[in-house]
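pinging the channel bc i need a second pair of eyes. not urgent but kinda urgent?? the chain im working w is below, pasted from the shared doc
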Amino acid sequence: METAVAVTLKDTGRKKILVVDDSPIILKTLTMKLRAEGYEVLTAEDGSKAVSTARRERPDLILLDIIFPPDVAHGGGVPWDGFLIMDWLKRMDEAKDIPVFIITGGDPERYKSRSMAAGAAGFFQKPIDNAKLIEAIQNELGDPTDAPA
């Protein structure tokens, strides 16, 4: 018989980054890299989890994939893609000012200008250049443990 255990996480004072991607490998590698840099990392593998996590946790930055396969994209009955997720985030008081960096394996010619027009603060093509991503995050957020402004 399984027993559910509630775990309460205390505020670590570190800046939080929400990584939204359907790939467990991307979620794991970005989580490891960002934690090594001193950030607290949250993850979501579909749009409904991304929106609810952003509302509840209020991350300092979101790394968001654009393309989700059909079996993942319909989380909560909604046909999510990164653009719809970003649109929902921009409409929520809790998330509208959170910078969003797009991370995608999709065609940059097709997605970069659309991402920036939709309000993305940055765009990164997969495979991600981790050094450039970390530099962009630090430029956006400052030190991982700086108190929010």
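so The chain has six helices and five strands. and Confidence is low (pLDDT under 50) at residues 1-9. — does that match what u expected or am i reading it wrong
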